[in-house]
Design brief:
- The chain has two domains: about 140 residues, Jelly Rolls (Sandwich); about 80 residues, Winged helix-like DNA-binding domain superfamily/Winged helix DNA-binding domain (Arc Repressor Mutant, subunit A, Orthogonal Bundle), CATH 1.10.10.10.
- The protein is of the alpha+beta class.
- Helix 6 packs across helix 9.
């Protein structure tokens, strides 16, 4: 099999690994998130044949860069990824965070070029899914095609949520909404919805939410005083989920 890795990843040492990690779509603990549940075992085997697994990205390494040719979408198997765009004056604008079981890279579909860059926040194992192969499989697997459309729809919805977050909400609402988002995504992976570690820095959080680092820290302090959140550096414990929802102005 010819393995393609983006030019940026190759420059930064993301090379195919000769080791067999003994992970495939059939035995991956994330398959219920990544894959459509309706796929039969034979279908999963076909999908698994096109997926390429390589040496993990190290913290700070790029999976792809803005402007790279689009050839694949990527699923996070472990670790976390930050997506960002570069502004006209050269600054980094964080556009999203991706956790295990989530798909990224779909921003390149429309123009055959990635519209953003993706960088590892920590050591991250990635599954690469060549888009041309995925298109061919989707043509003969309606459930796979539907699942991919659902993933694209979720991306659009997430973008709309972020736009709403930045245009209308207070600092308290923005930080609380991010904590709820991470809580929900953890629950989807059958992990704790109330205790988790933030892989991103306060700088990244502020950048993503359109807040200063000082404001982010003040909101965390306020949430601790209200006893709805416990913060120990990057370790988060949600003490009062309803309280976080109320601060985020989200109904149960």
């Amino acid at each position: 099999m010819t393995i393609h890795i983006s030019d940026s990843a190759q420059r930064e040492g993301f090379k195919p690994c000769a080791h067999d990690y003994q992970v495939n779509c059939g035995n991956c603990r994330l398959n219920s998130i990544c894959l459509p549940l309706a796929l039969e075992s034979d279908d999963i085997a076909q999908l698994d044949e096109i997926i390429q697994r390589s040496k993990p990205l190290q913290k700070g390494q790029h999976l792809y860069r803005e402007g790279d040719d689009f050839q694949s979408v990527f699923a996070v198997r472990s670790g976390s990824i930050k997506a960002y765009k570069t502004t006209d004056d050269g600054r980094e604008q964080v556009t999203g965070f991706y956790f295990p079981g989530e798909i990224l890279g779909m921003d390149g579909i429309s123009k055959n070029q990635h519209a953003s860059s993706a960088k590892a926040l920590e050591t991250a194992a990635i599954c690469e899914i060549p888009f041309a192969s995925l298109e061919k499989l989707s043509a003969v697997m309606p459930s796979l095609q539907r699942h991919f459309f659902q993933l694209m729809s979720r991306e659009i919805t997430d973008d709309q949520v972020l736009i709403t977050l930045l245009s209308k909400n207070s600092a308290d609402e923005r930080v609380a909404a991010l904590m709820l988002s991470i809580s929900t995504r953890n629950a989807r992976r059958k992990l704790s919805a109330t205790q988790f570690r933030l892989p991103m820095s306060r700088v990244d959080i502020g950048n993503y939410l359109g807040l200063t680092v000082e404001t982010v820290s003040r909101v965390f302090s306020r949430m601790q005083k209200m006893e709805i959140l416990k913060v120990d550096n990057k370790e988060i414990e949600i003490l009062d989920l309803e309280g976080v929802r109320a601060m985020a102005n989200v109904t149960s």
